């Protein structure tokens, strides 16, 4: 899953790294700087959404070994603006193990403060994980 994340073309625009920390749990790290600011000089909400969605999505997809999940809905809350520094997104699977999965994520700034949180629902797709660039089953 870490290689699949790294292979996604979108991550060339939003440099970040993914680490699976256990079944149903991931951690993403990224740096915020002026290149992602909105007009008022803080990180644009796009950054919050992308990192929260990615963390929750990959937390859920750690439980699925054959299919790619798709985000079907995502609810997020901005709790504090961030202007600069390292931000960590912590994703955690909440429920579901068949067709629909629920996972949540939170964003933590370099001071240890929560700056955002979100919850998403993810559905199994018809897309085989083995067909995607960067993915290979464990042990291969």
TrEMBL record:
Domain Thioesterase: 41-114
Entry keyword Ubl conjugation: no
Annotated keywords: Hydrolase
UniProt keyword Hydrolase, yes or no: yes
GO molecular function: acyl-CoA hydrolase activity
InterPro entries associated with the record: HotDog_dom_sf (IPR029069), PAAI_dom (IPR003736), Thioestr_dom (IPR006683)
Protein name per Swiss-Prot or TrEMBL: Hotdog fold thioesterase
Protein source organism: Tsuneonella aeria
Lineage, top ranks: Bacteria, Pseudomonadati, Pseudomonadota, Alphaproteobacteria, Sphingomonadales
């Amino acid at each position: 899953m870490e290689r699949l994340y790294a292979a996604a073309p979108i991550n060339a625009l939003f440099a970040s790294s993914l680490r699976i920390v256990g079944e149903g749990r991931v951690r993403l790290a990224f740096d915020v700087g002026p290149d992602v600011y909105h007009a008022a000089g803080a990180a644009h909400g796009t950054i919050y959404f992308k990192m929260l969605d990615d963390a929750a999505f990959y937390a859920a997809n750690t439980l699925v070994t054959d299919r790619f999940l798709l985000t079907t809905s995502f609810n997020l809350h901005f709790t504090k603006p961030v202007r600069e520094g390292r931000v960590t997104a912590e994703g955690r699977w909440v429920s579901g193990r068949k067709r629909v999965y629920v996972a949540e994520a939170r964003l933590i700034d370099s001071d240890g403060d929560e700056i955002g949180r979100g919850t998403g629902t993810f559905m199994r797709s018809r897309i085989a994980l083995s067909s995607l660039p960067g993915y290979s089953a464990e042990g291969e």
